[in-house]
Amino acid sequence: LHKTWSGLFRLLFPDHCRVCEKPLIEAARHPICADCLKEPAPLTADYFCASCRTPFTTPYPLVEAGLCGLCRRGMNGFDTSASYGFYEGVLQKLIHLYKYHGIYTLAKPLADHLMTALPRQDRIDAIVPVPMHWLKQWRRGFNQSELLAEQVSRRTGVPLLKAMRRRSAPPQAALSDHERRRNVARAFEVAKAVRGLHVLLVDDVLTTGATASACGAALKRAGAARVMVLTLARTDRRVAVPLVRVRAKSKTAGGW
Questions:
Q1: pTM: predicted TM-score of the whole model, two decimal places
Q2: What are phi and psi for residue 231, nearest 5 degrees?
């Protein structure tokens, strides 16, 4: 029956995978082949911040118990974060199709990757999606973070709590890191009780961390005990630090 239905589907609705362009051979709720859905690889790195889990290529940015500069200065509003992969390649294409092309049925297969990245040992009392401004959500037709959060809630049994609202703020895309953080510093408000809760904050992509940090700070101001951020992908912002050999100054030659 499955083969018959798949053949009928291809006859009536011929299409190709939106990622690899190969012909679709099975009926599905989204125009993506099974291979492309499975292709994104988990995030790997040599070094991670002990707090926010930002990846690094060398240990040199990590001092004082393995903390990165933002965590040392207390600039992250959340306690820790987890992401499935880097925002590149097939994973980036899948997120773009999901987010900007209205293929909201990708929420379910993408949530498979979220569940892989979710730390199982951490306590979670409520799952909170990063909110969109109501006008932007009306134009897009859905909140991609909310659909992902719903999937995680169903699979973990942890209640979904739409606790946050977003005020109007200029778009983030063309802003620098500092401008992003200033732009969203007070863009979020908490509308439901979160006091004492360990909150899992769900979003699609962690870029500079400005939005996640602003949401985390708002949740903390409202009394949340702990905020963990979970995203499908994060931008690879690693910069290799070259190893420079420095020779000691010679006392006899007077040179370096």
A1: 0.82
A2: -135, 160
